[in-house]
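Q: Can someone sanity-check these two? First one:
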Amino acid sequence: MKKEDKERVVAELTELLRTSPTLMVADYRGLTMPQIDELRGRLLEHGARFAVVKNTLTRRAAEAAGADALLALLEGPTAIAFLEAEGDLVSVAKALADSARETRVLAIRGGILDGRPVEAGDVEELAKLPPADVLRSQVLGAVTAPLTNIVALFSAPLQDLYGLLDARIEQLREQGDTSEPESQPSGSEPQGGVEPAAAADVETPEPPSGSEPQSENETGETQTEEEEQ
């Protein structure tokens, strides 16, 4: 490989390492080209770019990109699955694990997850997780469960308040007040300055001086003393 070609490869790998904080490394020794192409296609469907790399050039790229955790994984024939921003981490791990099981040749070495090194066993555990959409549903359920409890805590006092209001309305009806109580602004005095329950206890004012006293008959009509005689 010419020097300029090597420089181009190092530059491309450096850019991949800087933009892909998550990657998985495998030993592809013994895989045929059709098997490599098939695995590359499966990984591409899940948002990962699969590349067979040279260790010497990849070490230079890792040092330039500050990905020192990758250096320990660069032993023997190396292939790297670079996860893109929208890639499915679980599906990529599952594709690698399935290929390792089916071919009995591919060997997972480990990887880097958000800048942190992970071992081969960690990648295999990732492959056992449910698909990403199922995981999102499970996480959403775990997050919304406490919210349901909070709503219950707030709704309980409201239910008690409704019960007290219903009991008060029923009490007024038993006392002969069949009308629904009208709401008044909080802190305002009742009209006339008299409590509704005490209205019947207010004395009737004396008639004006010089006027003839009035009496009320059984039908509620008023008559003067001359009319009564």
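And here is the second, same format, sequence then tokens:
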Amino acid sequence: MSTVDTSQTLPVPINTRAQTAGKFARPNAPIVPPGSVTGRSLTLVIAIMGFLASLTACGVYLIFNAANVWTKKIEAEITIQIQPRAGDMSEDKVAEITKFLQDQNGIKRITPFTREQSLKLVEPWIGKSDVLKNFAIPRLIAVEVDRDNPPEVSTLKKVLEAKYPGALLDDHGHWRHEIRRLTRFLEFAGIGMLILMAMATAAVIVAAATSALASNREIVSVLNFIGAEEKFIARQFEAHFLKVGVKAGIAGTSMAAIVFLCLPYITEGVSSSVTSEAEIRRLVNAGTLDLGGYVVLLLVVVVVAAICKMTSRYGVRRILNQHNA
């Protein structure tokens, strides 16, 4: 009596076939090849987005820090302006007001400006001219207040201007308000630009995910046929786009870091005079990043990678649901 070989007639389970096929397949083969056009082009586009986002974020950070420094310096100083009047001896009046200020509480330092120093203050706008020496220009007294125990500026202003006609006290409140308003505008503008860049990056990721699914439709169909869940397929795309986001983010922020490292030399090259160079350095603090600035660059990398991961997850699952519906 012949023996029947049942191993040749019984059907092989799907899982067994998948495991058998997996033995001959390339191990850990990704669905989307890293060297594909999708990977290379997408890395370049996201690197450019990361570079622009890094420039924007760090630029706002530098201006915000510079504005804080300005505000603190302005809050710590008040200026006494003495208008020249007929019959008044300027030097005597400056000495009287200086003595008056020394007797007030909360005054840390008093620096009367000489006539020559006052003339130098207007040179950047008017220029050097011997004619100015014949003009009666206001005399200035710079007063540094004690931040821990500041004086009552409004009361000091009333007493000073009543006791010494022609003397005006300026607490620089107008300049503080203008600096805060400019800083807020730049912050909102920077945040708006970052949001637009994030939206553009997300749109590029969705388009790339759609293209990757279309070009790998056969592989996705086979995975669905052997029982692979949508979560598994989506995770493969997430891993691919996450790697792209990390590489592109590091590349973009590295380029931005190089720009900020070279910015002091660029500032020196584009400035037409020592005065304009000093003003630019005062505006952005020489363009150098401190520890907080490099933390901002690191956050840009994290945000770029997170956008790539989350957007690819949403895009791939939405497309898979539409195909399976």
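A (reply): Looked at the second one. Residues 1-27 have pLDDT under 50 and may be disordered. The first helix runs from residue 14 to 24.
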